[in-house]
Amino acid sequence: MGKEESFEDLMKRLEEITNKLEKEQLTLDDSVKLFEEGIVLSQKCNTKLEEAEKKITILIGEDDNLREENFIPEE
Prior knowledge:
It is a single chain. The protein is α+β, with helices and mostly antiparallel strands. The chain has helices at 7-23, 28-55, and strands at residues 57-62, 65-70. It has one domain (7-70). It has two helices and two strands.
């Protein structure tokens, strides 16, 4: 099994796919293949973001005492 790709690597490949789809004359089959790859990469990026979000904590100060709390983003 290969090395797991970083979020940055996944985003770089997504940008490459986007540029190809926008600027190159591709066959329909090639366009569909790139689009499918982009969807898979997008899902991987989303998973990585969700995992990172779960790890983030906020330090909150109350009466000179600090406590950690899980980060819950506003939706």
